[in-house]
Design brief:
Elements: E1 4-6, E2 13-15, E3 17-20, H1 24-28, H2 31-43, E4 48-50, H3 59-68, E5 77-82, H4 98-112, E6 117-122, H5 131-143, E7 147-152, H6 157-170, E8 174-177, H7 192-199, E9 202-206, H8 236-240, H9 246-253, H10 255-261, H11 266-276, E10 280-285, H12 290-296, H13 306-316, H14 326-329
Parallel strand pairs: 3-4, 3-10, 4-5, 5-6, 6-7, 7-8, 8-9, 9-10
Antiparallel strand pairs: 1-2
Helix pairs in contact: 2-3, 2-12, 4-5, 5-6, 6-7
Bound molecules: NADPH dihydro-nicotinamide-adenine-dinucleotide phosphate (NDP).
């Protein structure tokens, strides 16, 4: 089964392996495969699920809602996010304005088929809306009982500090950040993690397997495997391609003997690695089929000895991205969706 961890400085426990449905549900896989994968996650002990209104332009929330229907609500932690454009992508269909937050939460609750989400997250930092407006709106939806806790995604250390100061003033339970983090993408280590530790915020880290690359199935100089994300030209292939250079794939193959040595699969090693690093509350994994999730959850509770952590650094250190300024670059400077 899957172990639990507290999310930030709060009383909320989350399954340390959390399942997310970006680029899979209502996109790469059909609904029956999506629902079977969510059920496999539940069977394996995962209780925390992450989605976003922008995934498949709102359709992914509907699929997750269907998959979780009939399960005891109190035994689930349901997370969603807003910021990226949705629907017709008009001037107020994106960002973190009061208007979009109120409309956004109502739309997400309807699609997910629930009265509240456990965590409502700002999918990026909105440079065009005053932060006070955003946090006041978050405070109001928390008071209305529509969201129990508030989180953000890909905020810089400075943005987290500004948000935490307002959250304190307005009594908003701001407890998490959701950044990309894996053996290949380590940009949060220098600034985001120390600031979060100081502020009582945890990381829920996305793409811990670098979208499947750390499974070792993509081989240098070889065609990408049939049915994998890299073949999903309408969506996933665009996101995974930055990890498909031969230098990265060659380094990743050096992880295979390390995984063998500790009797783990490569996906399990990748997940165990993020869970062992400071300030990480959950590895937010994806899966395109049930057997992936059933196998990957065995990473929960694994302890990697210092020599194994050092061997991993030696294997992939030269290709890992560590530049802290990358976090600032991932939030658009203008509101997305507008010309
Ligand atoms: P992962 O790094 O866990 O990649 C998951 C993919 O890896 C699967 O869909 C599958 O792809 C492949 N895979 C999984 N297990 C195995 C296995 N055992 N063997 C071989 N291949 C395997 O995470 P994701 O990139 O999917 O992201 C996870 C979640 O993070 C998202 O659903 C979302 O909730 C969140 N996220 C948040 C973002 C943000 O901005 N806040 C951005 C992106 C993601 P396939 O079978 O197709 O090869």
């Amino acid at each position: 089964m899957v172990n639990y961890r507290y999310l930030g400085n709060s009383g909320l426990k989350v399954s340390e392996i959390t399942y997310g449905n970006w680029v899979t549900h209502a996109s790469q896989v059909d609904d029956s495969a999506a629902i079977a994968t969510v059920h496999a996650a539940l069977d394996a002990g995962i209780t925390t699920f992450d989605t976003a209104d922008a995934y498949a332009n709102t359709e992914a929330e509907i699929v997750l809602g269907k998959a979780l229907a009939g399960h005891r609500r109190e035994s689930l932690e349901i997370f969603t996010k807003l910021y990226w454009p949705i629907g017709p992508k008009g001037p107020n269909d994106a960002g973190l304005s009061r208007k979009h937050i109120f409309e956004g939460i109502n739309g997400s609750l309807k699609r997910l088929g629930t009265d509240y989400v456990d965590l409502y997250q700002a999918h990026r930092f909105d440079h065009e809306t005053p932060l006070e407006e955003t946090f006041q709106a978050f405070a109001d939806i928390v008071r209305q009982g529509k969201a129990l806790y508030i989180g953000v995604s890909e905020w810089t250390a400075e943005q987290l500090r500004e948000g935490a100061a307002l959250a304190k003033e307005l009594h908003v339970p701001f407890i998490s950040n959701q950044p990309q983090y894996s053996m290949l993408w380590r940009v949060i280590e220098e600034k985001v993690v120390p600031a979060s530790e100081e502020l009582g915020i945890s990381q829920i880290v996305w793409s811990p397997m670098a979208q499947g690359v750390l499974s070792g199935k993509y081989l240098p100089g070889q065609p990408v495997p049939a049915g994998s994300r890299a073949t999903d030209e309408k969506s996933g292939a665009n996101f995974i391609k930055s990890f498909l250079g031969d230098d990265v794939l060659t380094a990743v193959q050096k992880l295979k003997p390390i995984a063998d040595e500790v009797s783990l699969t490569m996906p399990q090693l990748a997940i165990a690695w993020v869970l062992q690093n400071p300030n990480v509350a959950a590895a937010l994994v994806g899966a395109s089929r049930p057997e992936q999730i059933a196998s990957n959850v065995a990473a929960s509770g694994v302890v990697l000895e210092p020599a194994v952590m050092a061997a991993i650094d030696d294997a992939v250190g030269s290709v890992a991205v560590t530049d802290a300024s990358k976090t600032y670059e991932v939030s658009p400077k203008g509101r997305p969706g507008l010309s």
